[in-house]
Amino acid sequence: MVQLKINQKKYEIEADKSMPLLWALRDKVGLNGTKFGCGVAQCGACTVHVDGEAVRSCVTPISAVEGKEITTIEGLSPDLSHPLQQAWIAEDVPQCGYCQSGQIMSAAVLLKHNDQPTDEDINDVMTGNICRCGTYNRIRRAIHQAAKTVRKQKEDNS
Amino acid sequence: MRIINGMTRRSFLKTSAAVLGGLVIGFQLPSSGRRIEAKSKWASADIANAFLRIDEDGSITIMVNHSEMGQGVYTSLPMIVAEELDCDWNDVRIEPAPVNMVYSHTTFGSQMTGGSSSVWTEWERLRLVGATGKAMLIAAAAKTWEVAAESCRAENSVVYHDASKRQLTYGQLTKQASQMSTPKQVSLKDPKDFKIIGTPVKRLDTPEKTNGQAVFGIDVNLPGMLTAVVRRSPVFGGKVKSFSADKAKAIKGVQSVIQISSGVAVIADDFWTAKIGAQAVEIVWDEGPDANLSTQQQSEQYAALANTPGAVARKKGNITTAMDVSAKKLEAVYEVPYLAHAPMEPLNCVADVRKDGCDVWTGTQLQTAEHATAKAITGLPAEKVKIHTTLLGGGFGRRAVPDCHFVSEAVQISKAIQKPVKVVWTREDDIQGGWYRPRYYHKLSAGINDDKKPIAWKHTIVGQSITAGTPFEAFMVRHGVDVTSVEGAENLPYAIPNVLVDLHSPRHKVPVLWWRAVGGTHNAFAVECFLDEVAHAAGKDPYEFRRELLASEPRHLKALELAISKSNWGKPLPKGHGRGLAVHSCFGSFVAQVAEVSVSKEGKVKVHNVVCAVDCGPIVNPNTIDAQIEGGIAFGLAAALHGEVTLKNGRAEQSNFYDYKVLRMDEMPKVETHIVPSTDKMGGIGEVAVPPIAPAVVNAIFDATGKRVRQLPISSEDLRS
Amino acid sequence: MTNTPKNSGFARVGIVAAAWLLIVVVTNLVMAEQKQSTSKEDISSAAFLKVYKVLQHPRCMNCHPAGHIPLQGDNSVAHNMRVKGGKDGKGIPGMKCMTCHQTQNVTGKRTPPGAPNWHLPHPDMPLVFQGKTPAELAKQLKDPKTNGNKTLEQILHHVSHDPLVLWGWKPGEGRTAPSISHKEFVKQMKIWIDNGAVVPK
């Protein structure tokens, strides 16, 4: 039995401690927004946040995240209001859409630490997330767009 | 939520059945001809025959009979209906169509998605659906107001009678409309009056694809469902000789281990346990006749075949004489490897086989075939077998398998264990599991006369047939030539008087399949690169050379000239940079691309930007055109730079994204898309940008370095300076 | 008391320890003999060459690359997805080392290897192994200005106890370990230091 805190809610997971977080989320908790793409931390589709850091849940045993704050795409915002989600919609980023949860979760950590990312900064983080449909240019535009929103929000608040 | 997805549909159907009060329009399309019959019905058991349903709350549901795999059909197809219906776009919802003959592809005869054909094949039918709906709503209003239908007009889901300043919404009219007789003839809009078609409409499925709510096949969960992982033969064509499941069964959570047609299935409480369990099964394989097959061996075999005459795909003039009289002759060999599709969502299928029925939930491109497969395995009557199409996490052809293996496995397992089961492929299963774009060997020769004009073109192609041995063979293989092997080569558009294109189709146990853009993925590479070689040999600019040879091909020419005019063709470039060009026509569309690349000292190729011009005829959603051009370029570039499955001892040597590399963000070029304004015949868009990118890049590499790449993926080793 | 597996385990440890002691004693005797016949400088130099071989092994060199991008695999190719060490050697927010590398190796073929605090050297002092000659590497290791402000004692302590260093000898399925044992590696490092930390010629 492993206790996990996911999107502010507590869950008791009946599984072997070596089970990757991805499968606990999908098969035990029923949160399907986090995707399986490769199982070996190569594609980024399974990206979630653990204590605010981007983590590939497909290679993270549940034993390693006990007691930590886990956030999945479902917990990023209750209403599509995160600047990245807004930008994703404005730029019409997704095609098949399968990789986009992971793309957004990676980008969210990037934006939190860097609200004025250059193209190179974006490459440094987003190169870890594969999109086979080739939405990369739109992802880039959406991140720039969301960064603008974040900067404006900060200005308005100061 | 504007996509009524697989998981919410059951409850939706219940609700709509209870509502019982709206216009439902279906169209029967006799398979023998193009005559289209409209009929209207009350919402009822016949709901399956509907393309359009208008409920009293004003919501407009459009059934989409093509699978959404990223190419945007869940938006572009409803746009066509909405345009003629004159409804408010915000009222539109879509629902994936169930399997029914009425939803069959208007050209290919069965319910399927492929060949970049969804929009152009549904164009006529869906316009009629919308126009019929509008005519009936107007008729209903006219009857209510006791005025002539001609004095009414419809706009944004409202029917107006301007003279009396009366209006009724579609929701208010739907019940009445459903009782009107179906008009025998309806008029379609003049394209200049289009309000939705031709505008960049945003996708309906974007919101749910940005918050994790979108339901793909892998996300389907049924009560009591188990998960299975299947061990398939590591050697293509191999079979299970014997196996021991003791170690797997000892793992907590493993429920059963059974043999199915493709291998051994381990069924467990969850995917992780099934995967661990599958690895624990000890299997002795009968490796079959291809146990020693290797890439090296294939290459030698193909080279030998290319020196012998093949089945003739195209013959024009006299190639032998023309070669003899040529002032200059060129010969080259081009080779491309097997390619996996590697869609981001690994293959999967949920099947629930019961005594009284069978439900299958999956992202498929071939609904009719999957239905027939499930029916055959279960022995149930057709109406008891239901295929629920989910969103596809990428298709690229991989979810259009003629033998229906991923559905077949799930149905076999569910039938055996009498429980719902979800079969999930690992990425390793996907990369090593075959169904590749075939490996091809191209031998080309050309002759140029004293006027520097090409007078002879010989092209021998060697590679496995995709359709041989499938139901598609009957209409895709003619006189020993599989059209999918030669498309893009036999229809060479260049005005060369003597042409011979022939084909060898060696057989191997490695299963092969259509891979986004199919024949064009290798033929455009061979043809467009070799043509560049011929242009240089003739001492001509590759653009001028093509322009002259395409003088009587107006659509090729327009795309070519637009791409050139938008690129800086002929203008100076930074040192180490080069520009390359390619033109290609497939799926009824015409594409030209100009790529700018640089090559580092280490031989690493960087593609900086691609200017793409496309003529795909009249356009429904320009937003889709942009997205598909970008996507096609990314897909083709992944193959040009990285993609390769090699064989050793009959096994694939690659297994996951660390050795089957795909394009990542840092390698994505800037893409500029320019659309040729066109009223010509409508063509496809989902695949058409793939073929030209590899030759455009390779031709640009030649421009930058003077080195001619003739093998994909491009090797840095060969380009080191 | 019954002979529980635990007890037999203790017995095994005892035998192994005794054997090890014997080896150490014998080795020291041999070394002492060598000492008489070779100069301190030669001994130090010879020990460093053994250390050098380990430092050039992919398990060590891959995270001490010449550029910003770590290497991976037994063929030491540039790390897939071109990850970077960032400002602190631990990656860039959104793609840190720990985004993929756990604190221990995890189940499965070709999953990312893991050890506590997976990281690259700090970018201000990159401590490059890749492409260095023995002399260059020895110089770099000795100099606090290039070795992370460490004394030689601290270096020895680092290679003896740092879990990331120790991981090199437990790299998980599909990865080779250096050809000499960790113990031997530490021993050679100590010999190098004790005999003057000579920069080999």
From TrEMBL, chain A:
It comes from the Bacteria. Keywords: 2Fe-2S, Iron, Iron-sulfur, Metal-binding, Oxidoreductase. Residues 1-76 form the 2Fe-2S ferredoxin-type domain. PROSITE patterns: 2FE2S_FER_1, 2FE2S_FER_2. Pfam families: Fer2, Fer2_2. The keyword DNA damage does not apply. This is Oxidoreductase subunit alpha. It comes from Uabimicrobium amorphum.
TrEMBL record, chain B:
Residues 211-289 form the Aldehyde oxidase/xanthine dehydrogenase a/b hammerhead domain. InterPro entries: Ald_Oxase/Xan_DH_a/b, AldOxase/xan_DH_MoCoBD1, AldOxase/xan_DH_MoCoBD2, AldOxase/xan_DH_Mopterin-bd_sf, N-heterocyclic_Hydroxylase, OxRdtase_Mopterin-bd_su_IorB, TAT_signal, TAT_signal_bac_arc. It comes from the Bacteria. One of its GO terms (molecular function) is oxidoreductase activity. Transmembrane segments: none annotated. It holds the Pfam family MoCoBD_1. PANTHER family: ALDEHYDE DEHYDROGENASE. This is Aldehyde oxidase. It comes from Uabimicrobium amorphum.
TrEMBL record, chain C:
InterPro entries: Multihaem_cyt_sf. This is Isoquinoline 1-oxidoreductase subunit.
